[in-house]
């Protein structure tokens, strides 16, 4: 609400008088301030004025570069340039002393990045291929998101060659690529509507005058409030209904499969071969050496995991749930039966289960699974294991996880939403083939629920926002968690870490901020053995970022993910706009408001915009068996 309102206020237009424009023409400053006239101005009381002035100056520099071939005005014109800027804003920002209010020093207006002054100096620093790519991607209308993102993305690779020091903060090395591209790569030049918006975050003002604008605000604010109210009421109702529908569908499904299960067990007893064994508590006690401490191979909020040897000599794992009551046993046995019927090389096979009440240990629920020899992905990434996974192993693990989940979603009958995908639920066998564990059992795990309603099962940092906030559960929630685990696998950074200011930062937000800045490969762990080609690494990072997108419709399906990971072609991944993170710093929010367009959309000056890499595979044919 607040953001909407300020966006509207921000769109207020201020007319400036012709006389102030004339005064702006100081012959000794070569910058042409009239160029800025058509662009929308900040309101006098806005906190965004310095940002506007900064971007406005950069647009002026670009215009100057296009006209004259030099980036900045000569240093002897610095004083008169400030004076000219001052008088050009006098019409709408009277008594705003730019230098003292924005912390600029006088010489800074004619100083920039590494003493570069001319176009040819700049071009000599950037390799031809990088320049050519940028021109290719920026030489078109940048008005819509995709070309703009692809242009800014290619410009971000200039930074690697502009490593010298910048003087001041009026135009620094970070700003130079945009100034250059608007002047010499884009065919329309910096004053074009799309170019100014994309590269300088400046919007053209529309035709209405200040008076109309104020009137509009009077009408628009209550109107917007009403619309928002109706929309949120509708959303509330919609989610509740969806949720009810979902619960109803699920109950029906459970009933159906319960019936199917009964028929199945009759069939089984007829043929005398069951896939699922009901173990006795005594058997398990014997196999695990009376649940000896030495046999513990995993601990969690739900209970412990023990390894043990069955009578026939096979090694298995026993997962023993703690604090359970006999009440849910029927439901539990049923779930276990359904789960046991699902077999895939990348899913941990369930062999059997046990429910029992004993005099000393209380009620018991145990499931019996295949034992995998290499522990969990969590152990390898964050545990005490010294070894560092090589890239080929990580690739195999990523593909295995994806295939296992795709099978759960689209191959299994009934299809299963895992709900609790995390690094410690990805187990690795002796060949480092990933085995997704614990599917279908999330509701029996109390772990990770402490901060959430009991209806949401999952672990902090891995749970998709819509599931955490609204309890809206779809396959796409698993895709989100998969994206987080994939990012952990690529970066060896935990799902949530605390930054220097004590703020929690999710690996998804962190990776996105790097991708947005064109530093996609910085997501990948330094010093990973046998690093793959940059194209492949980049593809994996982009897929992970796409999967962990906060908006569920932006995420691909697991089938699509498998296809993208498997394909050897240059895959194309476009990442749609993303809202600012939930835990954003105050200045990030201010910036996103100041640069937002009249539509009230949240975007940041660096561009939370769609990124596109090549042809679109996502929308290709996605049928897989
Ligand atoms: C331009 O600005 C400078 C600095 O304020 C001033 O000294 C000079 O007289 C101005 N020139 C014109 C033509 O207004
Ligand atoms: C520019 O830098 C100065 C000092 O380094 C700082 O006080 C000021 O806030 C900065 N201005 C902007 C717009 O970043
Ligand atoms: C830029 O120029 C100034 C003076 O002209 C010089 O002192 C400084 O070393 C130069 N900086 C670079 C990075 O070349
Ligand atoms: C880069 O381009 C310039 C001008 O087009 C040319 O003179 C130079 O030889 C090129 N350099 C390389 C390494 O291709
Ligand atoms: C951009 O495209 C236009 C039209 O095709 C062309 O005339 C111009 O030379 C191109 N600009 C650059 C820098 O390649």
TrEMBL record:
Chief localization: membrane
Catalytic activities: L-seryl-[protein] + ATP = O-phospho-L-seryl-[protein] + ADP + H(+); L-threonyl-[protein] + ATP = O-phospho-L-threonyl-[protein] + ADP + H(+)
Keywords associated with the record: ATP-binding, Glycoprotein, Kinase, Membrane, Nucleotide-binding, Receptor, Serine/threonine-protein kinase, Signal, Transferase, Transmembrane, Transmembrane helix
SUPFAM superfamilies attached to this UniProt entry: Protein kinase-like (PK-like)
EC numbers on record: 2.7.11.1
Every Protein kinase domain range: 291-571
Pfam families, alphabetized: PK_Tyr_Ser-Thr, SPARK
EC class: transferase
Protein name: non-specific serine/threonine protein kinase
Species per Swiss-Prot/TrEMBL record: Eutrema salsugineum
